[in-house]
Design goal:
InterPro entries: 2Fe-2S_ferredoxin-like_sf, 2Fe-2S_ferredoxin-type, Adrenodoxin-like, Beta-grasp_dom_sf. The chain is an alpha+beta fold and 106 residues long.
Length: 106
């Protein structure tokens, strides 16, 4: 088990527990995190689970697949640390990871 810290646009933090192997998107939805819409339910078809990963953990994650990278191109305000939360599996490496939730998902 690990902990994930979701940070909203006002800087407010929500700390939640995560099971190894669970997707970041599932954790956000289960925890009622505003801003992680997840319209496609994790099918890598919409980009509404977009988030920014804090630099401290970014290099500890596997790189995005080509499909994820292609979808990120269409999200609002993509950045070098943009990821789709449906594609990120929790593990010991993600313990304490800070996830910045964008203001808008389209």
């Amino acid at each position: 088990m690990s902990e994930v810290v979701f940070v909203d646009s006002a800087g407010g933090e929500t700390r939640v527990n995560a099971e190894d192997g669970e997707t970041l998107m599932a954790i956000a939805v289960r925890s009622g995190i505003d801003g992680i819409v997840a319209q496609c339910g994790g099918a890598l078809a919409c980009g509404t689970c977009h988030c920014y990963i804090d630099e401290a953990h970014l290099d500890l994650l596997p790189p995005p697949s080509q499909e994820e990278a292609d979808m990120i191109e269409f999200v609002m305000e993509p950045k070098p640390n943009s990821r789709l939360s449906c594609q990120l599996l929790m593990s010991a490496a993600t313990d304490g990871m800070r996830v910045i939730v964008p203001d808008n998902q389209h």
